[in-house]
Automatic annotation (TrEMBL), chain B:
<feature type="transmembrane region" description="Helical">
    <location>
        <begin position="158"/>
        <end position="178"/>
    </location>
</feature>
<dbReference type="Pfam" id="PF00528">
    <property type="entry name" value="BPD_transp_1"/>
</dbReference>
<feature type="transmembrane region" description="Helical">
    <location>
        <begin position="237"/>
        <end position="265"/>
    </location>
</feature>
<comment type="similarity">
    <text>Belongs to the binding-protein-dependent transport system permease family.</text>
</comment>
<dbReference type="InterPro" id="IPR035906">
    <property type="entry name" value="MetI-like_sf"/>
</dbReference>
<feature type="transmembrane region" description="Helical">
    <location>
        <begin position="122"/>
        <end position="146"/>
    </location>
</feature>
<protein>
    <submittedName>
        <fullName>ABC transporter permease subunit</fullName>
    </submittedName>
</protein>
<keyword id="KW-1133">Transmembrane helix</keyword>
<dbReference type="GO" id="GO:0005886">
    <property type="term" value="C:plasma membrane"/>
</dbReference>
UniProtKB/TrEMBL annotation, chain C:
<feature type="transmembrane region" description="Helical">
    <location>
        <begin position="104"/>
        <end position="126"/>
    </location>
</feature>
<comment type="similarity">
    <text>Belongs to the binding-protein-dependent transport system permease family.</text>
</comment>
<dbReference type="GO" id="GO:0005886">
    <property type="term" value="C:plasma membrane"/>
</dbReference>
<dbReference type="GO" id="GO:0055085">
    <property type="term" value="P:transmembrane transport"/>
</dbReference>
<keyword id="KW-1133">Transmembrane helix</keyword>
<feature type="transmembrane region" description="Helical">
    <location>
        <begin position="249"/>
        <end position="275"/>
    </location>
</feature>
<protein>
    <submittedName>
        <fullName>ABC transporter permease subunit</fullName>
    </submittedName>
</protein>
<feature type="domain" description="ABC transmembrane type-1">
    <location>
        <begin position="102"/>
        <end position="314"/>
    </location>
</feature>
<feature type="transmembrane region" description="Helical">
    <location>
        <begin position="295"/>
        <end position="314"/>
    </location>
</feature>
Amino acid sequence: MTAEQHGTANTTTAMTTDDPIIEIRNAAVTYDGGETFVLDHVSASIERGEILGIVGESGSGKSMFADSLLDAIPDPGRLSGEILYHRDDGTTVDVLELSDDELREFRWEEVSMVFQGAMSSFNPTMKIGGHFKETLKAHDADVSAGMEFGRELLSDLYLDPERVLDSYPHELSGGMQQRALIALALILEPEVLVMDEPTAALDLLMQRSILTLLEDLQEKYDLTMVFITHDLPLVAELADRMAVMYAFQLIEVADREQLIGNSGHPYTRALLNATPDVEAPLEEMRPIEGQSPAPINVPPGCSFAPRCPLATEECRVEDPAFTRLDSGHAVACHHAEDAREEIALHFDRHEDSIPASGGDEQ
Amino acid sequence: MKRTEEDDPRTLVTDGAGVDWRGSSTSSVTVTREERLREIYEESVRKPFIVAWSDSRTRLGLLIIGFYFLIALVAILGLWREPSTSQAPRYLMLFENMNYPLGTTASGTDLAALIIHSTPDILLMVTSGGLWATGIAVFVGTVAGYKGGSVGRVLMSISDFVMAIPGLPLVMILAITFNPKNPILLGIIININYWAGLGRSIHSQVLTIRENNYVEASRTMGVSTPRIILKDVVPNIMPYVTVNFVFAARYVVFASIGLFFLGVLPYSDQNWGVTLNFAYSGGALFSWSAAHWLLVPMVAIIGLSIGLILLGQGMDRVFNPRVRTRLAGESESTAAVDEKDTGMTEVL
Amino acid sequence: MSNYYVRRTARVFATIFAVATLTFGLIRLLPGGPFTQLRAQLLRQGVPASEVDARIANLQNINPNAPLWQQYLDYMSSVAQGNFGESISLGEPVALIIAEAVPWTVFVVLVSTILMFAFGIFLGSLQAYWEGSRFDKAFSGLSIALMSIPFYVVAVISLYVFAYQWGWLPTAGTVGASVEKELSIPFLLSALEHSILPIFSYTLGGIGGQALAMRGNSIQVLGNDYVRVARLRGLADRRIATRYVARNAILPMYTGFLLLLGFRLSGTVILEQIFSYTGLGYYMFAALKANDYPLMMATFLVITVALIVGVYIADLTYSKIDPRISAGGSDEAY
């Protein structure tokens, strides 16, 4: 597949939103000078104030997507394309064009990030409070006012501010560290919070409570959130819109309701059916046969074709373009309509009976 | 590059050319003896060797050590003349007379003969010292770590005590007391308390290993303690032990030659340290013309320790999860333990 | 927690006690036992045979004819009072000899160990910073080469070149023979001049190991997520280099530093011999050669106590310095 193909494909109306805060155009990440891509010319837009959930297996490129939003691809990866950020005041910048200093300001002040594994995100030999202070100082913010805000954030997250700020990371539990990290990400009042598997290392109960807290935060501070996870049911509880990644590309984007109940991509439907559900009879649980491809052997044509029950010759030859299915629902599949008919969703779809979370591929 | 293949670092832990060091400890009992042997060979001999060989430092280290074994073979087969006084003109320089390529000493002894005929004993000594240190350390470390409780406490107290005795002075006293001539015994005496520090760090590693599921499984299945230690625990620390065997061996080289040089160890045998001592006390310090007399044994010593260190470094790189985690992006906090240990091997 | 400190301190005394006992036993292991040599020596000096035992008892605070347990008690109680008897070969109180020797040894070991760590940390962090560069490869090779050279080889070569051949530096001793032993500029200069070669030889070989350790630690720290997060948070490179990378990479080396100080004391047995540097190690070896058991045992004990105290300080302070480690460690949990 080529960049051009995707470029044109992705600028369809399906992908535009009314008031985007970030528009990703043809973002591609390569580690070998363009031979293979670990983020394969992805375009998407993120609506101001929404919670966008991005779902994908391990190794589907979803972390690359998250890193791209801050132009923070780990070395020696190279990111190309455009990441357009629309400020509050109506001006627009391309994140990839920012100078080092501008980028330093942009990160954390405009777009901030929470990584998976809070334990490894804190300096083990520095107190939590030190992390807050140095961040404020590095951005020339008012430290005492900033720390006051930090305390408020920590309280919002049901933490005891004084105790947490005066603790070393290892003195806190995993859930506390994760919440402290979220507070640290919000200390400079960013517009967008990107979260890459923020709850992966936590137990189910803690995952739930963090999700609730995130919803509250989003409301209180009017945040735009990008929530990246492998756990479809988990993000389905939280997200306004959802996107599915497979083999380094976005394959389906839709409102939550649409994506859960009426998805058009065979992979999304298979993913939904592979999700453990306490109530689902065992024989209906369908693991997805085969493995997702590594970057060096993404097949020509549709990358899901080798595992797809509906794959035809067309799929193996031609990479499906991202096309609009319904309003606000886009999918990259030649047989989206067929998929809806031929792949039945096994769970009983009520208004709020999203399958129980806890789908673990790890 | 870590993020190219996996989003989840946990899945990368088995990286490192795919060697699974846990082996087949809990595999089913129905495998035949032959299959098991073949598997053991595959898992503990062939694969590690391939991994080790892939590192250029290990390769060079092995070549150097192989060369010393070759020299030892030359000595054992008697392919080079025995050293004796007045067998050649005095103070021949390096390559001055190709019959005596490494030159001769003040007493007209062939330096090459001195070096060559010292090699077998030195290799024996180095091996026995290394085996002794690592063997005791593995025994004490695994038993204390796995058994824990009062057994563990007693063993660790003993290690602490042994660690507290200064090695070199103790060895000197023992050497004078026992006057050991046997190179194997000598190796053991030199590393008489080397095992303690190593045993301590093995102990703390075993403390975490014993909490692993498969060890717990073996325990609930009623497998005997020695068997669990041998089958489930030891394979896990083998890489670490191998690396430290090399370091213990290097310590023997340094210490023994130092002590021969001081004249603490018996002079009767040929040894590079003795040669060095004779050169030193025989006036080689005062004139350039005898410089080679000092230089030749030094090069022999340094060569062997370079070989050992390259081997250790290379294997460390292959085995050590701390170095490997750079790729995996996940870290274990064994750092303190490791440092303590490398620290001690730096004494000489 | 305080319980741990009490136990740890008690263990120091227990260990010192045990080592003192061991030294007592070791003397009796040695060929001929502790007194044969002394007897012969006294007889040669013309002391009447009937008085020999009394003289020995006077010199060593031990009555050679008393039962072993009595000898042991006498020995232990005099050691506890800092009384190590009188040196046989030098005819001076052992405590006096040691008091004069210790400062020289401590000076050389302390300075060389600090230099070794300073250079090692500096080189290692540069290597990690430029990981994979030509500089890194060259210095990794150099580090391995340095690790492979025993310090006594460096000592002999530097003595050969700088002292004997070029005559830049003195060949032996702690200060010049003509210099008054008082605190003055000439004295300090002379002391410095005499210590250069011992310190140099004892430092050089150790740099390699420390550089490799620092390099490995730094590379590991650099690969940690918290460094990446710190960059994203916009922290200055300088702060990341010092507060994040250096701090987390150096801290694990702290215990090694204190342990090495102790261990390197025993290495002076060889070092000081080569430079005829009259420190602890020099006297230990001299005593060993002269069968001067009181002096030998005292030097042995002093080195041991230094070692034990080093480990003790390391254990107690590490948890204060590195917040990740809790005092007592996991070792004692079971």
